[in-house]
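Task: complex structure prediction.
Instruction: return structure tokens for all chains below.
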Amino acid sequence: MSAAPKRSALPGFGLSMGLTLTWLSLLILIPLAGLFVKTADLSLSQFIDTVTSNRTLHALRISFGLAFAAALVNLVAGLIIVWALVRYRFPGRRLFDAIVDIPFALPTAVAGIALTTLFAQNGWLGAPLASLGIKVAFTPLGIFLAMVFIGIPFVVRTVQPVLIDLDVEIEEAAVCLGASRWQTITRVIIPSLTPAILTGFALAFARAVGEYGSVIFIAGNLPNVSEIAPLLIVIRLSEFRYADATAIAVVMLVVSFLIIFLLNRLQRWAQTRALAVS
Amino acid sequence: MTITIINSPVTVERAQSVARHDPHTEPWLVRGIIIGVAVTFLTVFVVLPLILVFSEALSKGVGFYLSALADSEALAAIWLTLITAVISVSLNLVFGVAAAWAVAKFEFRGKTLLVTLIDLPFSVSPVISGLVFVLLFGAQGFFGPWLMSHGINILFAVPAIVLATTFVTFPFVARELIPLMQEQGSQEEEAAISLGASGWRTFVVVTLPNIKWGLLYGVLLCNARAMGEFGAVSVVSGHIRGETNTMPLLVEILYNEYQLVASFAIASLLALLALVTLIAKTILEGQIEEGQLPRDD
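Output:
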């Protein structure tokens, strides 16, 4: 009856909030801030030299470029998987639904050695591919496949609940109005799924950019050919070039956040558009 | 209610006519291709690697497999992994419950920002998660010189491994609890408080039973990641054999030394952990959904 905002009657705000903020600051925020403070060890020109050196640029291009390509594959494959899991009934459906999460749950080092052995030239899949003249392990193609592996759950698990909840009546209405199946899918279903698709894409992309464990075994790690940015950070650290390592890390963080920010904006835009459609 | 509708002959008949007539679904050929692509993709990328781990681990027989696991380095790695996981998960359990209580039960400015910050470790590369602790505690780090002069080892020792693992697994429990507690609201807790229960008693008697499955789920995911974390731990551990090697790090070392069967043997334990986690997840999701159903009876 009263329009005034209701104050919570529960106790414990001070305690829980205090604990949260202390823990968050000590463990996450202060260490991350240290990253930015450390780059100040380098002068601006040194910083620019480090991050624009051939090797660094190449590693960044490999990480971001291949992660983007892998996330695109995850988008298409993820949509096909979600569609099959939600709309069709086939033997083993529940099992396949459950194993979608494996890349998320399997420790990355395990995934790394398994994928490398699988795609090595004498491996189960590597051997037939090699006879076709396709070399996967220890090439950028191997990095790409490892990134595809690691990104599978993200698009599937963000789009799946939305497709399940999607009102069948909207589709029926489209059919009643004379739409073909293709028109119903592209004009009605896909726009409603777009915000979730973009979220899944962003998550898969962010994961693949920073991925280390499942990639380094299959990558071959040749400088300027198949060296990913996280590995270059590890190499710089082992050479005790802390400031260089930090500079690469800062560029990775800033670029990732910018891309995720842009995708978030795109997602909001798609959401308003999806609402307009339905 | 729903079940009777689905089973009514009219609906079945209608569903069949829908299947026969085109506009509501795809032609059988398209359906077959979509299912085929989905199944092939998941088989190549998920099923085959998983089978490969176990088949490689057992390729020299069960005896060899067991002796690889009973190796003193393997036992040390398993022990360190367990200790690290217990500490990290406990810390993040306390934090996760506190964060979820603050976010779900109260209104305050900057809530969205707080939730974003809690999720931050998910979007940071594991290598960078390790790097930040090297910068804090390394020889050239902010606290490094002071720690060294006092003879305290953090980096390349167990404390840094625990810190890096806790950093990486920070969001899991909070992320699971926040939406669950937001959905449940706080009426039951308010009722308990108005009847004179203390805050702590309200939490234990009212809130905890409501969130127990979600809490267990969060802890399981947190634990799986804590035991399996590789990148962050690799950067801070120093790889001292028998001392600062966790199971994933030992997998890497054995693999690089071409002790493939031993490497896959350790890896198979971690794969087993992932499988158990997923099975428990499937069971728990059922429990959580059941818990959220309105109790009419």
